[in-house]
Amino acid sequence: MADQEHEHRTITYFVNGERLMTHKDDLTVREILTAAGFNPVDQYRLTRDRGDHVYTDYDHKVELHEDERFTATYLGPTPTS
Questions:
Q1: Tens digit of pLDDT for each residue in 29-76?
Q2: In Å, how far are 13, 14, 53 from 67, measured between CA atoms?
Q3: What pTM does this model have?
Q4: DSSP characters over 24-63
Q5: Domains of the chain, start order
């Protein structure tokens, strides 16, 4: 019964201030970036705001906590005018 309750729990997290929700306890870096609309994923780096941890492996599983905050940073060249 505890496992079923755990599966139906909703976790709210944020990427660049955008509120997202999941029923999973962990997501890959790729899943987090994709859910937040950052595509193609390999052009972005994900950083956990608390602790300033930078993820370099897109397949790394990230344990999510309620109200967890992340920052997605574009890795490509910045256009100039």
A1: 999 999 999 999 999 999 999 999 999 999 999 999 999 999 999 998
A2: 5, 7, 16
A3: 0.85
A4: -SEEEHHHHHHHTT--SGGGEEEEETTTTEEE--TT-EEE
A5: 2-74 (3.10.20.30)
